[in-house]
Design goal:
Helix content: 40-55%
Distance between the termini: 44 Å
Strand order of the largest sheet: 3-2-1-4-5-6
Structural class: alpha/beta
Largest sheet: 6 strands, parallel
Radius of gyration: 21 Å
C-alpha cells in the first residue's frame, strides 16, 4: 500500500513511520510520500526517518530492515497524491508562529487562545478550513479511491469540512480519548483491549460515561475510590469531587471549560505560551536535524530529545491550576495517535474489524445534532469505513456545551465559504469561552491584522 502524508515535514511524522516499521503483516505500507511546502522541514524529517529505518535493522544487524517502507519527499501536491491508497492530512496553516500569535492575541483580551479551544481554535479554524477544502477537492480529483485520515486540528471541524467533498472517505482521529480510556482500564485492572469505552462528544469535548469489562460497567467503582481517581492525570486535573458530580471522566481539554478563569490567569502569567515554546523548540530541532554532514543517527537523537521535553511540558499551566505538579511516567504515554491510525488503515485495507474512537459523521447517533455533524464516538471499522455505534444520549450539561460548540463550528464553515466578516464575528461571539460581541470583533481585527490567511474575510 502507498501512504501519503500531507504536512510531511511535521514533527510527529516519525511516530507514524515508527509504527509502520513495526508492522510486519501482509498488505502493509510499502511506500510513504511526504508532502510539505517547506523544503527545509522535508529535508530534516527525511533524515529522521532514514535514521529510524537504520535503527530497525535486519536480524543480521548490518543495515536497514529490508522491508522498511521506502520514503520520498515532494513539494508537488498532485505528485504526492497520485496512486495513494491512504492520505494522512496533518497540515498546520500559519505554522507555529500562527499558533503563538493566536494565543497572544486572545490572552490580551482576557480569553483563552488554545489551538483547538476558544478564540485560538476559531482563528486556527478560519485559516485552515479553506485550505482543507481545497485539499479535499484535489484528493477527490487526483486520488478518488484513497481513504483520508485527518490529523489536522481542530480535528472535528476540519474533518467536517473535508467531508463536504469526500463524504465517508475522510475520518478524523485523536489520541486523547484512547489515552484516557487506556488509563482508566488499567486502573480498573483490565487490559485496554478487553474494555468497552462508552465515550461521546466532539473532538476535544467528550466524556467517558462508562467502561465495560465483561459486560459490566466498572466506572462507578472508580468514581467511588478517591485515591484511585486522583492517581491519574485527568483525576488530578479535575479532582475526585468534581468527577463524582459529573458521574463521568471528561477529556482533558474540558479543563479549559470547567476551570476557564483559573487557566486563563495561569496562561497570562506564564513566561511563554505553549505555541511560543513549541515554535522556539522546533526551530532548534529542525536546524539541528537538517544540518548537513551530521553523523548517522544524529537527526533521530535530536527528535527523541525534543519529543521527550515536549511531552513532559504538555498542559503545564492546567496542572499548575490543579496543583498537581509534573506529569507522572504513566501520563507521558499518549493514546498513540499513530497506533490508532495504523489500526484504522488495517481494518479498512484488510477488512479486519476493529472498534476505535473516531471523528465521523453523526448520522442518527446523537439526536441533538444533525446527520452531517462530525462527532467523536466509538466506531466499528471494516472495509467499508467507520460506522458510529449507538450511544446513550448526552445529559443536559453536556448537550449545552456540545451544541454551542457545534454552532460555532458551523459559523466557521459558513465564514470560510462566504468570506463574511459577520459570520466570523458570530463564530467568536457564540463560543462559551468568549464573553462579549465587542471582544469577538476585537479578536477578529487582531487576528486579521497578523494572519494573511484571513485576508479573504471582508
Amino acid at each position: 500500500m502507498r501512504l501519503t502524508i500531507l504536512g510531511g515535514g511535521g514533527f510527529r511524522v516519525p511516530l507514524v513511520y515508527g509504527a509502520l516499521l513495526g508492522d510486519r503483516a501482509e498488505g502493509r505500507v510499502s511506500h510513504v510520500t511526504l508532502y510539505d511546502e517547506d523544503p527545509a522541514r522535508l529535508t530534516a524529517m527525511t533524515r529522521v526517518l532514514r535514521d529510524q529505518a537504520a535503527a530497525a535493522h535486519d536480524p543480521a544487524g548490518d543495515g536497514p530492515a529490508a522491508d522498511a517502507p521506502a520514503v520520498t519527499a515532494t513539494g508537488d501536491l498532485d505528485e504526492a497524491l497520485r496512486g495513494a491508497d491512504f492520505v494522512f492530512s496533518a497540515i498546520r496553516v500559519g505554522g507555529l508562529e500562527g499558533r503563538a500569535s493566536d494565543e497572544r492575541i486572545a490572552l490580551a483580551e482576557g480569553v483563552l487562545g488554545q489551538e483547538t479551544v476558544g478564540a485560538g481554535g476559531i482563528a486556527y479554524g478560519l485559516r485552515t478550513v479553506p485550505v482543507a477544502r481545497a485539499i479535499a477537492r484535489r484528493i477527490a480529483r487526483t486520488a478518488p479511491g484513497a481513504w483520508v485520515i485527518n490529523f489536522t486540528n481542530p480535528a472535528g471541524l476540519v474533518t467536517e469540512a473535508m467531508a463536504e467533498e469526500l463524504g465517508e472517505r475522510v475520518i478524523g482521529i485523536c489520541d486523547s480519548p484512547v489515552g484516557l480510556g487506556r488509563r482508566i482500564a488499567r486502573l480498573l485492572g483490565a487490559r485496554p483491549q478487553d474494555a468497552w469505552i462508552d465515550y461521546v462528544g466532539l473532538n476535544h469535548l467528550g466524556w467517558v460515561r462508562g467502561l465495560r469489562i465483561g459486560g459490566r460497567d466498572e466506572l462507578p467503582r472508580l468514581l467511588a475510590d478517591t485515591e484511585a481517581l486522583e492517581s491519574f492525570e485527568e483525576g488530578r486535573l479535575f479532582g475526585a469531587e468534581w468527577l463524582r458530580s459529573l458521574g463521568a471522566i471528561p477529556n482533558e481539554y474540558l479543563h479549559y471549560y470547567y476551570f476557564n478563569r483559573d487557566t486563563v490567569r495561569a496562561y497570562q502569567e506564564a513566561k511563554q505560551t505553549r505555541g511560543a515554546f513549541l515554535r522556539d523548540q522546533q526551530r532548534g530541532f529542525y536546524a539541528e536535524a537538517g544540518r548537513a554532514g551530521a553523523p548517522a543517527g544524529a537527526a533521530l537523537a535530536a527528535w527523541d530529545r525534543t519529543r521527550a521535553e515536549r511531552e513532559a511540558t504538555y498542559m503545564a499551566e492546567n496542572r499548575e491550576v490543579a496543583g498537581v505538579g509534573e506529569r507522572d511516567g504513566s501520563d507521558l504515554e499518549s493514546g498513540g495517535y499513530e497506533k490508532v491510525a495504523l489500526a484504522l488503515m488495517r481494518a479498512i485495507a484488510r477488512d479486519e474489524r476493529a472498534t476505535l474512537i473516531l471523528n465521523v459523521r453523526n448520522g442518527s447517533t446523537l439526536s441533538v445534532l444533525d446527520a452531517e455533524a462530525v462527532i467523536e464516538v466509538p466506531c466499528l471499522v471494516d472495509a467499508n469505513g467507520a460506522h458510529p455505534v449507538g450511544v446513550e444520549q448526552l445529559p443536559l450539561h453536556a448537550v449545552g456545551l456540545v451544541t454551542a460548540v457545534k454552532a460555532v463550528e458551523r459559523e466557521i464553515l459558513a465564514a470560510a465559504a462566504s468570506g463574511s466578516r459577520a459570520d466570523a464575528v458570530k463564530a467568536f461571539a457564540l463560543h462559551p469561552l468568549v464573553d462579549s460581541v465587542g471582544v469577538a470583533r476585537r479578536l477578529l481585527d487582531g487576528y486579521a491584522a497578523e494572519h494573511p490567511g484571513l485576508a479573504y474575510l471582508r
